Fold:
Amino acid sequence: MNQWIVRTGWIGVLAASAAVSQQPAAPAAPAPAAAPAATQPPDVKIDTVSIAPGIYMLVGRGGNIGLTVGVDGAAIIDDQFADMNPKIRAAVALLSDKPVSFVINTHLHGDHTGGNDAFGQSGAVIIAQENVRKRLSVAAVNATTNQTTPPRARAALPVITFDDSATLHFNDDDLEFTHLLNAHTDTDIMVRFRKANVVHMGDTFTGGFPFIDGGNGGTLDGFILAHEKVLPTLDDATKVIRGHGPLGNKAELQAYHDMLVVVRDRIAKLVKAGKSQDDVIAARPTREFEDKYGGTSFNAAQWLGRAYVDQKTALEKRKKKK
Structure:
């Protein structure tokens, strides 16, 4: 396990050994490393939700931001779209007279990393799992639209990366970063405020059905395994920041996990029976969960199609081992 310890004002290596192996991404029509959006609806504002002393959730346009303010200054987890940067800075300025020192990316997508350019240019240190830098450094092609997203600017790239885990000691707390392999993407991390008992899950936990970005290493099985890695470390008092949606807790993350297991097992059974992707979508394995997790943007064909590919690939691998 590679583990880096990042302290305010200096960086040191605690320990380094073998890198964590990863399963290759299954083939699918991906969402690329999304570029920041160029325009902003005029009515978008930042809502600030107090979670614990000195810790907040900022809700605007894009992924939910985690914010810590205190004696060392300010640090944020994710930074939404590029055009939200002035409003994010304004929201932080209401809570701290110091600029943002660190930006932690929970994964690569542009609705969570769009502000990297501006924060990087102004001197913030960007931290992420090493695959974020690798993927943002190169052009990405969307297999569905055949559109190419160019590499991100140098200022937007993480300057501190890690493989499996890292810790930032900041504002009298320990922010622990843990890589969640091949879940929403292959770049996902969980961020834990050890003393405050707050966790940011990025898009491995949202208010609706998950988006599995197969083109960037995401899998349904990886989603489920990520939850099974995180859940035993939480308690009933843990506050859980979702990538999108309201503040959550352990019980809600457990329910989300259990829903995914039910849907996954139904899809796996249909795949084993030789059903096609269209058959699986028509069977509506999500039926009793759609009112709770469907939402207005639910695309059954997109999500279930990705899950079908995952389970078909898993079945083929099992057959080859026999």
